[in-house]
């Protein structure tokens, strides 16, 4: 147990180094990582699971890079020109909450969850690679000054995050698709990944 | 052509019966206009740009007016108010000849029990023009009848009486209309008196506020959706979601025991449910499993292929001079328009009560008479015992020119012995719309040495518009030759061109298509006026001059020239692109109303933005210029919505999308910030207003885009190619 | 479920079997206020827009249970013929409605906008007023929104003078 912080430190150093070298074609980042930690493979699995969820439409649709929320599995721009607005909650009089309430609406097919809103612009993920998303997630200047522990809590306990597994039905009454990893697996993967040092594989 | 007929029609004295009734002291004036002309001429009269006569019921007594005890006039309108402002126009016309103030007239929809049922429909931009003569004559007759009674009661010679605001005065005495009418049993029916001179009009020609304005601003319960009857239940009908489905069987077990369900009704062509609330009816409906026979493999591609010039039956609707021969070097462009939905905001619906051998139907419909007959026939009731009470329409646009859901609600009502309210869901409204048919146009033109057209040919194909509808049965279509709706706007209006031809092809689609505001006009004018613009560019001529020089000299042509000049002048029409903005020009004639438009367009973020539209229109005498402006504004926005955004698809046998948003329509942000309307009066009677301004907008926008980008957009909805 | 709410200033208690029933149907069918319209039932068209605690809400997508203890304002309560709301006054002066079906929703959305943004720009209007009108009255609506803003500002000044 005592060794763990050291591993974490080492891993982070290596990752940092790798990023610095990421554009240097001669060095294979993958090979270097292989040699570093026996936890790496597990960590990578956790990371993959976590990212399978974070990049799923249920999550990604509200982390846009162009301030326009997306809808549906095809992630089309939100109809009627809805956008981020000043405070991530839409516009002054027509806000997210004009239509979206704190629960899914099974009559109208309008999804809902507590504090329904766009993720802040600093947490825009759309169009980013998995590694870039992870970086942004960990970057306190971007993530709302959240520590790892706070990130774990946010990702495993927040109602709006967990809505992804209970997304209700669409306007036709058809259930929305859910992320490819179960909620419990996702929670475990998040906890493990952070516990293993939140290592971002470079590939 | 058939324009003489209306002069010969006057209110017949023998038909002008009078009786008291309707629970108030009052006069009930009853008039009848006979539908004498052969239907072919009547309908072709509408189509060939001549105004429609008022097509009334044949031999039943009709109640037009009621004089109430508080000295107001109730005017029972045989035409429905669906936003087009007809109630306001007819109130102005009646007030004028009755000599009452505007606020003494209250217009209500005539229930079919009043007898004042239009046997045709409310549609085709005919209400004001059709009622112009008969309604003023009836109003004037009622005024004279009231004056005669007043003369007796006041003991003053009728010639010494005058009337203002419903107050009769003479020889120092006064009497209200209500007092004059009170207790009268034997009315003397006069000949039709002389109508007012145009110079004496007090209300006609004035931009008075809509008579339904307050009701619509304060949220009064005036629509079909708001209608109720005591002890009412709610119904729902299972509708197929695939094209061409026919009902085979239904498994209703799961629905039977659901909360609020009163009864499940299985007929040989549909299955419905009656419940205590709309939501419960909807939920039970969703639990019924129906087996349908349907097409599964139909898609948009197949429909487009079907809808190609050369397919189906054709008829030449216009021809002059020679056709093109193989040696001619002709310019050819092809255009397409997609399936369009009506998308009116109030879904179709009805409250029906079948009580023994009679039925009451409250409904927003454009066809009172047809709905009445359909209910009577299916429920085996006397037509006289079916009372259809029309409500205000939350949008018509042609969508309510057939409202057979009244029949289904009546069947549900009969099954439970109580009134049943039944409305479409929005999904059903989209899936079971009677769509604007897709079209395909092949246009050929040949320029002469002077750069004008020597020949012009318009070949186009459409699905059913007027054909195979409740209004125009198929037998009649065969008689008429072409689809009288599809050909609107398909004629060549530049008849100074020596050789021209218009030919309409007709293809049966596997789903219902029908009247969509302006019928064929929107797509036909988009195609024709885009082609004209291209020819003007080819001839290196100003688009306005190019048009003006090829218009003949008939009266309608002169009116067309006048609106073209007026629009160009008002808009300062220029072919230069300035500050990223270009102008596009187009003109059309529909139902004898010429209209020209200039659209100012720019491209922002690869999207077409319409900043300003200038309209010049000659609807003849403007009964209410403000409402005509409103119709121009509305047509332009509805038209640009259809031209820029709207499109239905067919996917695996389903019509889609089924909700606003995915069915993209113009929103506030898309509407032009400036709409400048110039009204001309090229004739002294009112003409069509509610549809003609839909004609030019599509081509006006496309022609502006052509000047901005060099790209000729030939398919609605207009989409810029990526590179621009 | 018993739900107590204030509707247009009047306290009401309604007993609704299904607490998820859209507020729209409770307002229309239980409370018999028909000015709030059903257009799509999917929060897409905005015909059912009303105010809950002053915020614009599309009532077809708002379960009645959430309205418990709250203040609901519908078009009937926005103003009346004797005392029209500035938005209604402006709508009358500009003769906005055609078929009229979507208009209550638009007026409620506009009233909410003017509460938040008393002097809206074209951009504010374009972003916030996203209901659907099929008759195409948008052109007059925009004029009416500017007029309503002016009328509302005058009303505020007059009221403060009286105070």
Automatic annotation (TrEMBL), chain A:
<dbReference type="InterPro" id="IPR036280">
    <property type="entry name" value="Multihaem_cyt_sf"/>
</dbReference>
<protein>
    <submittedName>
        <fullName>Uncharacterized protein</fullName>
    </submittedName>
</protein>
From TrEMBL, chain B:
<dbReference type="InterPro" id="IPR046867">
    <property type="entry name" value="AldOxase/xan_DH_MoCoBD2"/>
</dbReference>
<keyword id="KW-0472">Membrane</keyword>
<dbReference type="GO" id="GO:0016491">
    <property type="term" value="F:oxidoreductase activity"/>
</dbReference>
<dbReference type="InterPro" id="IPR000674">
    <property type="entry name" value="Ald_Oxase/Xan_DH_a/b"/>
</dbReference>
<dbReference type="Pfam" id="PF02738">
    <property type="entry name" value="MoCoBD_1"/>
</dbReference>
<dbReference type="InterPro" id="IPR037165">
    <property type="entry name" value="AldOxase/xan_DH_Mopterin-bd_sf"/>
</dbReference>
<feature type="domain" description="Aldehyde oxidase/xanthine dehydrogenase a/b hammerhead">
    <location>
        <begin position="218"/>
        <end position="299"/>
    </location>
</feature>
<feature type="transmembrane region" description="Helical">
    <location>
        <begin position="16"/>
        <end position="35"/>
    </location>
</feature>
<dbReference type="InterPro" id="IPR012368">
    <property type="entry name" value="OxRdtase_Mopterin-bd_su_IorB"/>
</dbReference>
<dbReference type="Pfam" id="PF20256">
    <property type="entry name" value="MoCoBD_2"/>
</dbReference>
<protein>
    <submittedName>
        <fullName>Isoquinoline 1-oxidoreductase beta subunit</fullName>
    </submittedName>
</protein>
<dbReference type="InterPro" id="IPR052516">
    <property type="entry name" value="N-heterocyclic_Hydroxylase"/>
</dbReference>
<keyword id="KW-0812">Transmembrane</keyword>
<dbReference type="InterPro" id="IPR008274">
    <property type="entry name" value="AldOxase/xan_DH_MoCoBD1"/>
</dbReference>
<keyword id="KW-1133">Transmembrane helix</keyword>
UniProtKB/TrEMBL annotation, chain C:
<dbReference type="InterPro" id="IPR036884">
    <property type="entry name" value="2Fe-2S-bd_dom_sf"/>
</dbReference>
<keyword id="KW-0408">Iron</keyword>
<dbReference type="GO" id="GO:0016491">
    <property type="term" value="F:oxidoreductase activity"/>
</dbReference>
<keyword id="KW-0560">Oxidoreductase</keyword>
<dbReference type="GO" id="GO:0046872">
    <property type="term" value="F:metal ion binding"/>
</dbReference>
<dbReference type="InterPro" id="IPR002888">
    <property type="entry name" value="2Fe-2S-bd"/>
</dbReference>
<dbReference type="GO" id="GO:0051537">
    <property type="term" value="F:2 iron, 2 sulfur cluster binding"/>
</dbReference>
<feature type="domain" description="2Fe-2S ferredoxin-type">
    <location>
        <begin position="1"/>
        <end position="78"/>
    </location>
</feature>
<dbReference type="Pfam" id="PF01799">
    <property type="entry name" value="Fer2_2"/>
</dbReference>
<dbReference type="InterPro" id="IPR051452">
    <property type="entry name" value="Diverse_Oxidoreductases"/>
</dbReference>
<protein>
    <submittedName>
        <fullName>Isoquinoline 1-oxidoreductase alpha subunit</fullName>
    </submittedName>
</protein>
<keyword id="KW-0001">2Fe-2S</keyword>
<dbReference type="InterPro" id="IPR012675">
    <property type="entry name" value="Beta-grasp_dom_sf"/>
</dbReference>
<keyword id="KW-0411">Iron-sulfur</keyword>
<keyword id="KW-0479">Metal-binding</keyword>
